[in-house]
Amino acid sequence: LVVEDCRAGLEIAKRIRDPFRVYVLTCLLGYGWFRLGEAKRGMDTLREGIGLAEQLGTKYLLAWAFSWLSDSYLVERSFDAALDAASQALSLVVPGSDFYGESLAARCYGEALCQKDPNRLAEAEEHIQRAIRLQAEKGMKPQLARSYVGYTRLLQLKGEADKAREYLDRARALFQELDMQWHQRRLAETFG
């Protein structure tokens, strides 16, 4: 439904020649495609949206787009690209001005960093914990569940199996509570 709404909105935005709405809806559509399992289409569309933002000279919601792209690269296990996109997202965030973007960028950066460079787990953990704190404080349950998964991976790398299981259970419970079926499937595929 979200993808269809984005496509309909995008058609209208193109017809009335509203480049800003075209940019925003292109990014949303890209993330939607990715979440529906159309990875290449989604990532290409996200990159197109980021390109539109650059053409417009806007940074509005750009941290979100780079974070979504990083998140997509993480799922694809392209950790260099994920870290690059997350670094871009972090550079765009003004702390305290956009809690969603800030928490998403922090989580993606922490996840990408721990996967790319296990020697920097402490730094990665700080970023993921920052995301968890913001998301818990602001009631961002879907993002909080995703951060729990990222923290589970980090804890596994640190060899903290019991704590990792605790955060995995928290993620499962939230995904189930929120009926996040795509995430539930990914969790089952990844962790059993």
Relative strand content: under 5%
Radius of gyration, in angstroms, nearest whole number: 16 Å
The largest sheet, given as strand count, sense and whether it forms a barrel, is:
none
Number of DSSP-assigned strands: 0
Overall outline: globular
Task: Give the topology, please.
Blueprint: H1 2-15, H2 19-35, H3 39-56, H4 62-75, H5 79-92, H6 99-116, H7 121-138, H8 141-158, H9 161-177, H10 181-191
Question: What can you see in these coordinates?
Answer:
With 192 residues, the chain is an all-alpha fold. The chain is built from 10 helices and no strands. Helix 2 runs antiparallel to helix 3 and helix 4 packs antiparallel against helix 5. The chain is globular.
Note the main attributes of this structure.
192 residues, mainly alpha, 10 helices
Short structural description:
It is globular and about 55 Å long. 83% of the residues lie in helices and 0% in strands. Helix 3 runs antiparallel to helix 4.
